[in-house]
Write a structure and sequence with these properties.
This protein has a domain of 202 residues. The protein is built from 21 helices and 2 strands. A two-stranded antiparallel sheet has the order 1-2. The chain starts with a helix and ends in a 6-residue tail after the last helix. The model has no long low-confidence stretch (mean pLDDT 84).
């Protein structure tokens, strides 16, 4: 019963969102609360329990002495990451890179799309989607707007490369799977690399295809027939350099550059919690760049307004995950999915897990899949000779389509920054992500990482 209620809750939310009947924030809060209260009535418990589940999804809960974190940490990271990079935008840190990029593209939509995809892949090495969105949009969003390019293409050129780089060991999925399967990052990551490489080639093909589409739509030809000329490019550069010029600090470029690199390095290495390092870095950046305390406060408030919407949505994601987990719907869904996998399939269990991972990682939180489904399936696979690495690789395949799930918090930052509708983004993303899923699957089968 709980499993079907969980399915229905997610379907209702998705339908309302896709049909644009409800905003993401309202849907993330009200839909799960409604179904959480239904569960309370069914189980004959106080409806106040639904609010407790919601709180646990946002903050934390303790299970058998183990603390399970909610989305508060993500919200903190998101808030101060946005504030920090907004300050870096204010001071003009990215202006030189943007200027060079704009000159390099020469008003060619094809070049713009390919360069954007490459930058997205490189920046995504840090394993954080929010950072990638902020940096890439800072570099090319104004160019997309000026050339009247389709901004949903920008969302795709950020999300697709980022979803591929999401397989690195310091990202969320592998970090969750490693302790469950008791394997190390080196042995786990090596069989993933070939699939990532082929997928990145496909991502560059996607960028080429989108660029060619824009060439045709904007009537651009390789001989330089663009809807913008050199004067327009110079105007974009001038506008970039002159915008909020009083806030720019070109003399402090190297300080801001080194600070940003240091923050990224600490984030990747994991020396300090991401939210804490961005909190400290934000305060340090304000202190050095703006001596006037009044200006410090004004920039914090001004940039905080931009952060409020996405951060609110992260709390919404915590609400839906809290209701799913606290009510037992998440566990019931996991058990229901596992029940469709016959143990007699033997060596095909990893393959079945890879197939199940596609819908499961769209409809379930990562925690529910890696801490709910994976521990149940792994022993079944082991009993038929599968190795932990094979099970681990199979569990990651569905990450290719993960970024069309409404449970991924940073996607709300992506659609907010690129100015596209979430439902439109989901449809466009899935079209390109599904081939990458099969690329990952077939590559893993060919190299023997998934036995058949």
């Amino acid at each position: 019963m709980l499993a079907y209620l969980g399915y229905l809750m997610i379907i209702v939310f998705m339908v309302l969102l896709l049909k644009k009947k409800i905003s993401p924030f309202v849907g993330l809060i009200m839909v799960p609360m409604f179904f959480g209260i239904i569960v309370c009535f069914i189980q004959d418990i106080s409806i106040l329990e639904a609010f407790t589940w919601l709180k646990e999804g946002i903050f934390y809960k303790v299970v058998e002495g183990k603390v399970i974190k909610g989305t508060m940490g993500t919200a903190t990271l998101l808030l101060f990451a946005i504030l920090f990079f907004s300050i870096m935008l204010d001071v003009g840190l990215f202006d030189p890179m943007c200027t060079k990029l704009i000159k390099m593209t020469k008003g060619d939509p094809l070049r713009i799309c390919i360069v954007t995809a490459i930058i997205s892949a490189i920046v995504s090495l840090d394993g954080d989607g929010t950072t990638t969105v902020l940096i890439v949009t800072a570099a090319v969003l104004s160019l997309f707007k000026k050339m009247k390019m389709n901004q949903i293409y920008l969302a795709l050129l950020i999300a697709i490369p980022n979803s591929i780089m999401n397989y690195v060991p310091w990202s969320g999925p592998m970090a969750r799977a490693m302790p469950v399967l008791n394997i190390g990052p080196k042995e786990f990551f090596l069989p993933i690399i070939p699939g990532m490489a082929v997928s990145l080639v496909f991502a560059m093909f996607m960028a080429w295809k989108l660029g060619m589409n824009e060439r045709k739509r904007l009537n651009y030809h390789s001989n330089g027939n663009s809807n913008i000329d050199e004067n327009d490019i110079n105007e974009i550069i001038f506008e970039l350099q002159e915008k909020n010029k009083e806030l720019k600090r070109p003399k402090l470029f190297w300080f801001n550059f080194i600070l940003t690199i240091a923050v990224m390095a600490i984030l990747i290495i994991g020396l300090i919690d991401g939210g804490v390092i961005f909190l400290v870095a934000t305060a340090f950046a304000l202190l050095v760049n703006y001596k006037d305390p009044g200006l410090q406060a004004k920039r914090l408030v001004a940039n905080g307004e931009e952060a409020l919407g996405p951060v609110g949505l992260v709390f919404g994601a915590g609400a839906i995950m809290g209701i799913l987990n606290g009510s037992g719907m998440s566990e019931a869904i996991a058990q229901n999915i596992v029940s469709f996998i016959p143990s007699t399939m033997g060596t095909y269990v990893p393959l079945l897990l890879a197939l199940v991972s596609l819908p499961a990682l769209i409809f379930l939180p990562n925690d529910a899949f890696y801490f709910g489904i994976l521990p149940v399936i792994a022993p079944i696979a082991y009993s038929f000779g599968a190795t932990p690495v094979e099970v681990g690789v199979a569990s990651l395949i569905g990450q290719a389509t993960r970024f069309c799930s409404p449970l991924v918090a940073f996607l709300y930052v992506l659609v907010d920054r690129t100015g596209v509708d979430f439902g439109d983004y989901q449809r466009a993303f899935f079209k390109w992500a599904l081939p990458i899923y099969f690329i990952q699957l077939f590559t893993a089968i060919l190299i023997g990482a998934i036995p058949v």
